[in-house]
């Protein structure tokens, strides 16, 4: 398969080293959660980590001490099964204590396997695949009608694009001219039962989005020097924007990369130590 090259700009003023340090911390948290009592969706959390760090540590206007601040930008994790990556990013950003990550999936805690509104920084309960973009359309339309500068970002899985409701939302967003809406596709090319192209072919993906009336480009989802400027890009074209982020499932843990077996994992103590050592060795 021919992989499209990145079309997004490279920009100055990106703290690549600082973002990489944050992303390493997020991935360490994800592995620790994966070694917890119920496990987690490790592979897709690792592939999305850099996107989340770029958003929360550079792009999004948020106030961790005031999560419902009216001037905030909105973020929705449509691929809600990657909650471990979102919770870990929110903890690093100061929305919740890092220590709380150890309560993931426990009945007495609030960090469920899919995001819930009880968690500071979570806008909607998500994870029923195919619905996040519709919610983003609603938020973007509300902001425009209220003449507010709030931007809306939605992170989707690529397997999720097999849901028809995604394309209904895409059609609506373009029809309404929601240029304050940015969708990001975590294009790791794997879903729970194998390759996305074997299950339901998505390519040519950017052409599909353009045909629906979106500005569409491809960006390396692990290269902060390209990813951050692409996410920062100012609205104003009269069209919504989608970034197809070329990523690697299991990114950072070499023996988990490009493997569907890492989609969900409950790591044994030995498997956790091996994965953590591999992650730190690659950093």
Automatic annotation (TrEMBL):
Belongs to the transketolase family. Keywords: Thiamine pyrophosphate. This is Transketolase. The keyword Zinc does not apply. Its cofactor is thiamine diphosphate. PANTHER family: TRANSKETOLASE N-TERMINAL SECTION-RELATED (PTHR47514). Transmembrane segments: none annotated. Gene3D superfamilies: 3.40.50.970. Pfam families: Transketolase_N. One of its GO terms (molecular function) is magnesium ion binding. Residues 40-268 form the Transketolase N-terminal domain. The keyword Transferase does not apply.
């Amino acid at each position: 398969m021919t992989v499209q090259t990145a079309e997004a700009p490279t920009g100055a003023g990106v703290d690549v080293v600082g973002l990489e340090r944050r992303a390493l911390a997020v991935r360490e948290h994800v592995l620790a959660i994966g070694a917890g009592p119920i496990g987690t969706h490790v592979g897709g959390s690792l592939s999305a980590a850099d996107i989340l760090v770029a958003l929360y540590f550079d792009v999004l206007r948020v106030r961790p001490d005031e999560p419902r601040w009216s001037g905030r930008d909105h973020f929705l994790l449509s691929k809600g099964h990657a909650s471990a990556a979102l919770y870990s990013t929110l903890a690093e950003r100061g929305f919740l204590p890092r220590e709380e990550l150890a309560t993931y999936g426990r009945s007495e805690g609030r960090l469920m396997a899919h995001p819930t509104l009880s968690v500071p920084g979570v806008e909607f309960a998500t994870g029923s695949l195919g619905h996040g973009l519709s919610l983003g359309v609603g938020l973007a339309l509300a902001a425009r009608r209220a003449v507010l500068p709030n931007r809306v970002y939605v992170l989707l899985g690529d397997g999720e694009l097999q849901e028809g409701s995604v394309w209904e939302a895409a059609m609506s967003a373009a029809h309404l001219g929601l240029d304050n809406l940015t969708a990001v596709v975590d294009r790791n090319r794997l879903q729970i039962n194998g390759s996305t192209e074997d299950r339901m072919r998505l390519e040519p993906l950017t052409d599909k989005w353009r045909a629906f009336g979106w500005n569409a480009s491809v960006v390396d989802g692990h290269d902060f020097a390209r990813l951050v400027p692409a996410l920062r890009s100012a609205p104003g074209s009269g069209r919504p924007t989608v970034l197809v982020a070329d990523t690697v499932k299991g990114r950072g843990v070499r023996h988990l990369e490009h493997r569907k077996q890492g989609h969900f994992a409950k790591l044994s103590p030995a498997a956790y130590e091996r994965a953590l050592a591999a992650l730190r060795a690659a950093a």
